[in-house]
C-alpha cells in the first residue's frame, strides 16, 4: 500500500515540476515575496526597481529592456558579485560567449529548452566566469551551476559594484537564416555571435512568466500564456514557408478549409516587442494589394502603454509600419 502511495506521490511531483519549467536562476527568491521587489530587481542608476524589469522601462519609457536584472545576494571579499548562476530549466547549451568585449551582454550563455513542444531560449548576461568545461551542445539540468554572476559588458559606462546583477531573458527564436539576413542588411557590420545575436531572439516577460507559474502551479501553461499576449498590431505577409511557421507551428491557426498548397500568406498578430503569437493562413483571394507587408490594424491602447519598440508609427490619423516593424518582418520571413 505504502509503495503505491509513494509511486502516486512521485508521479504527481514529477508532473508538477514538468508543469513549472522555469526556476529562478540565482539564490535571490525575493520575486515571490510581495512588496520585496526592490530586493529582487537591480535598478539603473538613480531609478526605482521598475527600471530592472522587462519592457519599455528605460530612457523615459522609450527604450526596451528585454530581460530582468536580478540583484546580487552573495559577495566575495572584494565586494564583487559571487552568486552562482543556475540553469532555469533542463536544456542544452546553445551558445557561450567568453569574449565580454564583443557584446553589451558581456560574457553570456544561451540555453535551449523544450517546454511542451515550445522551443524556448534562456539567456544569462554580464557573467564573471563560465562554469569550467561547459560546452555548446552539452545537456544541463534545472538548478545546475553554469556560471558566476559578474559585471561584464562592452558599454562605455561600466556596471558598478552596487548594481551587480544577472541579466536574465526568456526568448523565442526568430530565424536560423539570421546571419545571411544580417549580412544583407548591415553589410559593413560584423556579426560576432552568428544566430545568437540578441536581435534574433525575441524576449517574453520573464517576471510575468515566473510569477504566473508560481501562482498557478500545475495549471500554468506556457503556450496558452504566449497565445494570450496583448496584441499591438496585426500584419499581413505574402510569404508562406518561413522558419517560424515550422518552428512554432502550434501558434499557427489551423484552417481545414484552406489546403496547404493554397496558402498565399499569413495574417500575424504581434505583441509590442514583436513576438508573432498568432498566425492565420490566408488564401490569395483574401489578400488585397501587392505590398509584401501590410499593416491591418493597430491596438492604440497597447501602443500608448508600450510604444518603445516603434514597430508602428502614426502620421496624423494614419498608422503605418515603422522601420523597426519592417526590419522585424524581413528577419522573420527571410
Ligand atoms: Zn538588463
Structure, described:
The protein is α+β, with helices and mostly antiparallel strands and 334 residues long. It has 8 helices and 17 strands. Strands 3, 4, 5, 6, 7, 8, 9, 10 and 11 form a 9-stranded antiparallel sheet that branches. The chain has a 4-stranded antiparallel sheet with strand order 14-13-12-15. A two-stranded antiparallel ribbon has the order 1-2. Strand 6 and strand 7 (118-130) form a beta hairpin. The chain is globular and about 70 Å long. Residues 14-18 have low confidence and may be disordered. The structure holds zinc ion. Residues 65, 67, 69, 167 line the site of zinc ion (ZN). Zinc ion binds next to loops.
Describe the structure using short key phrases.
four-stranded antiparallel sheet; 8 helices; alpha+beta; binds zinc ion; 334 residues; nine-stranded antiparallel sheet; 29% strand
Helix/strand order: HHEEEEEEEEEEHEHHEHEEEHEEH
What structural category arises from helix and sheet content? alpha+beta
Average pLDDT, all residues? 94
Kindly estimate the percentage of residues that lie in beta strands according to DSSP: 25-35%
What's the total helix number?
8
In this entry the ligands are: zinc ion
User: N-to-C terminal Cα separation, in Å?
Assistant: 59 Å
Biggest sheet statistics = 9 strands, antiparallel
Radius of gyration: 21 Å
Shape: globular
Helix % is 10-25%
Task: Describe the SSE topology.
Layout: H1 2-19, H2 37-40, E1 55-58, E2 63-65, E3 68-71, E4 84-86, E5 91-97, E6 107-115, E7 118-130, E8 139-140, E9 145-149, E10 165-173, H3 178-185, E11 201-204, H4 206-216, H5 222-227, E12 233-237, H6 243-247, E13 263-270, E14 276-283, E15 293-298, H7 300-305, E16 312-315, E17 318-321, H8 323-333
Antiparallel strand pairs: 1-2, 3-10, 4-9, 5-6, 5-8, 6-7, 7-9, 7-10, 10-11, 12-13, 12-15, 13-14, 16-17
